[in-house]
Specification:
The chain is built from 10 helices and 6 strands, in the order βαβαβαβαβαβααααα. By secondary structure, it is of the alpha/beta class. α2 runs parallel beside α3. The radius of gyration is 19 Å and the shape is globular. It starts with a strand and ends in a 9-residue tail after the last helix.
Length: 225
């Protein structure tokens, strides 16, 4: 089994050491470094190239700039946010920047491991109790000039989209629809291409806009003049 190299960045020393101690004991993981700021997180990635960087949202430095810099220069490193912040705007900004996991502190270690495993597969994980709030907070700007695909979604794609809007992950969607996880990933790839979306978060945004456009479209057959 491939050993996952992992690094942590958090400006709370006790939490940082606790995470490090926990993952040192877990088989299948190799600790690559610890940092207490976004500059230190970037330095660790530059020198150690971990598979996954787990970092707090609120540390000294610029979180979004650091995230974009890491993903542009070291796309093989996946980023998971581990934070106490339940600010949906901050979560959406982080996910839009390319973060693949958003785990609230207070979650179980198992949730953090699920987020790390999901990130390695290119999947997105949001703490389940928080995911529906993030999706509910998604707003499409009225002046967004993105051209929405006009082709109709297939029945199966519509089923998958409905699950996405509930904040469900690929594994849960596969279980609900009696499909393999690989099949769900294939549909997700097709949806991203059809909707011109870069990730599953953008798929949700585009679908919400399509739904709003449909709801606001005038109905035909109005009263005669």
């Amino acid at each position: 089994m491939h050993e996952v190299s992992i690094a942590f960045a958090d400006d709370h020393p006790l939490l940082l050491e606790g995470l490090a101690a926990s993952f040192r004991r877990k088989p299948g993981f190799r600790l690559e470094g610890l940092g207490a700021s976004f500059d230190e997180a970037l330095s660790i990635v530059e020198t150690r190239r971990p598979d996954v960087l787990v970092m707090d949202l609120n540390m000294p430095g610029d979180m979004l700039a650091t995230t974009r810099d890491i993903l542009a220069r070291f796309p093989e490193t996946r980023i998971v946010v581990f934070t106490a912040s339940e600010d949906t705007g901050a979560a959406i900004a982080a996910l839009n920047a390319g973060v693949l996991g958003y785990v609230l502190k207070g979650s179980s270690v198992n949730d953090l491991i699920l987020a790390i495993r999901a990130a390695l597969q290119g999947d997105t994980f949001i703490t389940p109790s928080f995911a529906s709030r993030v999706i509910g907070a998604l707003q499409v700007k009225p002046k967004d000039t993105r051209k929405i695909a006009t082709s109709q979604l297939s029945v199966r794609e519509e089923q998958i989209v409905k699950k996405l809007l509930l904040g469900k992950r690929n594994r849960e969607i596969a279980s609900d629809l009696n499909l393999s996880e690989r099949t769900v990933k294939s549909y997700m790839t097709g949806l991203m291409q059809k909707l011109r979306a870069r990730n599953r978060l953008e798929v949700v945004i585009v679908v919400k806009q399509m739904n709003e456009d449909e709801a606001n479209r005038p109905t035909s057959g109005g009263p005669p003049s």
